[in-house]
Amino acid sequence: MVQEDLSYKDKKVISIGTVSELTGLSDRQIRYYEERHLLTPHRTSRGTRKYSFSDVERLMEIADKREDGVQTAEILKEMKRKEERQDRDLRKKMLQGQLNAHFRYGRK
Question: What range(s) does the HTH merR-type domain occupy (predicted)?
Fold first, then answer.
């Protein structure tokens, strides 16, 4: 997806320093969560990380779960399950729309 087509929440425009200020997490913690595949910042041609508001929200959720003692591996599993559910729900809605369009086509 092209950066211009994204909602403002998903555009990767925020520096790691600003993300650190917004979340209260250190740069090191943020990079660690990236290493653990809990988020994926955009990298500029010079390698600078850029984050979105959605990434900031995700980091806040991760920090809350870590404070509750949840391990990063479990957080990753939970995130993958949630994404799979969302993908399934989207496919189901798309299929339902196709079926509705097919069977209602030409009927009034």
Answer: 13-81
**pTM, entire model:** 0.74
pLDDT above 90 (res 4): no
User: What secondary structure, in 3-state letters, does 29-82 show?
Assistant: HHHHHHHCCCCCCEECCCCCEEECHHHHHHHHHHHHHHHCCCCHHHHHHHHHHH
Mean pLDDT of the chain: 91
Give the bridge partners for 50, in sequence order.
42
- The residues pairing with 42 across neighbouring beta strands, listed in sequence order, are 50
Cβ(42)–Cβ(6) under 8 Å?
A: no
CB-based contact 17:27 (threshold 8 Å): yes
Q: Is 49 left (phi over 0), alpha (psi -120 to 50) or beta?
A: beta
**pLDDT value of residue 106:** 53
CA pair distance 14, 22, nearest whole angstrom:
10
Evaluate whether 8 touches 55 at the Cβ level (below 8 Å).
no
